[in-house]
Amino acid sequence: MADAAGIATVLAADGRDFLLRNSADQVKISSIEASTVALYFSASWRFTPKLIEAYNELVSQGKSFEVVFVSGDSDQDAFNAYFAKMPWLAVPFSDSEALAKLNERYKVMGIPHLVILDAKSGEIYTEDGVELVHEYGTEAYPFTTERINELKEQEKAAKDNQTIHSLFGTPTRDYLITNKGDKVPISDLEGKYVGLCFVVNGYGPVVQFTSVLAKIYEKLKAVGEKFEVVMVSLDGDEESFNESFADMPWLAIPQGDKMCEKLARYFELSGLPMLVLIGPDGKTLNDDIADIIDEHGPDAWEAFPFSAEKLEILAEKAKAKAESQTLESLLVTGDLDFVLGKDGAKVPVSELVGKTVLLYFSAKWCPPCRAFLPKLVNEYNKIKEKHNDFEIVFISSDREQSSYDEFFSGMPWLALPLGDERKQQLSKIFKITGIPSLVAIGPDGKTVTKDAKTPLVAHGADAFPFTEEKLQELEKEKEKKINDMAKGWPEKLKHDLHDHELVLTRCTTYGCDGCDEMGDSWSYRCKECDFDLHPKCALEEKGDVEMGEENAEAAPAGYVCEGDVCRKV
């Protein structure tokens, strides 16, 4: 038995020399035989199942390892329910003084937090136990600096000597599987280009990406290229894995195989989608070609095997395609040759040819979109009064028909139907990463600007037709007006809506925290609090302004709303 004086100093308290099991049995601290002890600071956290898996594996291997739960739960019932799932020991929840001292001693700033100690001396091996278990699992045991350095050296050696078998195989598995459950020897991939595709079930960007990749895969197969794709699932359960894999025509590493997590670490996965390209010799050719496929869509197959020369040719073709762009090439796909009018009538795209058309990417769930809409409606009406050769087409990112219908009901222009396949292609062509976005298409069908929103907010209806020449002219006029505008305004003021002094500030676009509408040029701003008021709101006595959002909806998965835009993440 190891000398437990070190760990006893850490875990014992006045009048208590024991820990608890979830059966309520007391375990003397002096009886702990493990040479490595982990203090797990947590409160009902999803990391726990992973730690349980690692703990059980280490114990079954006869490793000298123990975990002690240091609860952050709010009450005894929550502690009991959470601890009931754990196979290790715990500091009694009733010993609040000991819990507080442990949190203070190890400077716990957030949970989950896993501190791993030498049980004999109490020496800290690492305070990054959560990250190490995530990255290396049980291979990190005993979690010393020496062991982690050894693992990193092994990874470096593995990359230097990488083969198709070292990437996909294990000592007990030399095959991959199809979605029918058939086993395919890894040796069948020798001499082929292999795309290693990381997948999470139901994640929108991955679903969209794999649908395009499937078209590329089928095309390359049809022309006889030696190409294969291997799915690396990051799903935690078999049902999600099967759902992801069901419609995919390629191979996969079996669900739950630890190689999936190793590959995510090995290729430093930081975001999805991600597609690693492996060459016929088993070496990595490209760490991620997902961006190439996102940019070029199904046409990306023409750049295979994605060498610099092939990509240059593809870029030239894309440039030529852009130069030959027409409104029909953007808005017509097969039988989808129409947009919707206010009464639901189908308006042929041909009726828009020869007009300046704004493509309006937006959604009701997006607060900045709702704030921008009144401004856009107002300027649309002003432009239409003078120019018949102008139209807007709403391209929705809403999730439900009712939200789409309600939002569209406040728009006097046209729209693509909700869920229309053209939305995805248009988003890719114009690289739409945030909403609201306005893309201006000229009468000749060419792109005038991918950001018509900024000049429209700055110049209103005068920005039409959004050409560079027009905007330069307006900027010169505006600069003079802006400087004249502020003459006589106080440089600083106090307002009932904010505690701090507000400073008159030149700015671009912003959302007014008084009237909740967009503004530009000048703001009375508190930089410290990111608070803005239109000069008209700041200089007029309005009293309290209602700041609530009516009919607010949560942003869907994959989006974050900040300031005046909602972006994909």
In short:
With 569 residues, the protein is an alpha+beta fold. The chain has 4 domains: 7-150, Glutaredoxin, CATH 3.40.30; 162-316, Glutaredoxin; 327-476, Glutaredoxin (3-Layer(aba) Sandwich), CATH 3.40.30.10; 488-539, no CATH class.
Topology record:
Blueprint: H1 5-11, E1 18-20, E2 26-28, E3 36-42, H2 48-60, E4 65-71, H3 76-83, E5 89-90, H4 96-105, E6 113-118, E7 124-126, H5 129-136, H6 145-160, H7 164-168, E8 175-177, E9 183-185, E10 193-199, H8 204-222, E11 227-233, H9 238-245, E12 251-252, H10 259-266, E13 274-278, E14 284-286, H11 290-296, H12 308-323, H13 327-331, E15 338-340, E16 346-348, E17 356-362, H14 367-386, E18 390-396, H15 401-408, E19 414-415, H16 421-429, E20 434-435, E21 437-441, E22 447-449, H17 453-459, H18 468-485, E23 492-495, E24 498-511, E25 518-526, E26 531-533, H19 535-539, E27 559-562, E28 565-568
Parallel strand pairs: 3-4, 4-5, 10-11, 11-12, 17-18, 18-19
Antiparallel strand pairs: 1-2, 3-6, 6-7, 8-9, 10-13, 13-14, 15-16, 17-21, 20-28, 21-22, 23-24, 24-25, 25-26, 27-28
- Just name the CATH architecture of the largest domain: 3-Layer(aba) Sandwich
* Broad CATH class of the largest domain: Alpha Beta
What can be said about the biggest beta sheet? Answer: 5 strands, mixed
The CATH H-level homologous superfamily of the largest domain: Glutaredoxin
**Annotation field: number of helices:** 19
Q: What value does the average pLDDT take?
A: 91
Task: Please provide the count of β strands.
Answer: 28
* Beta-strand residue fraction: 15-25%
Strand order of the largest sheet: 5-4-3-6-7
Low-confidence stretches: 542-551
**Helix content range of the residues, please?**
25-40%
Query: Rounded to an integer, what's the Rg over CA atoms?
Result: 30 Å
The tally of structural domains comes to 4
What name does CATH use for the topology of the largest domain?
Glutaredoxin
Inertia-based shape: globular
Structural class: alpha+beta
Rounded to the nearest angstrom, the distance between the terminal CA atoms is: 51 Å
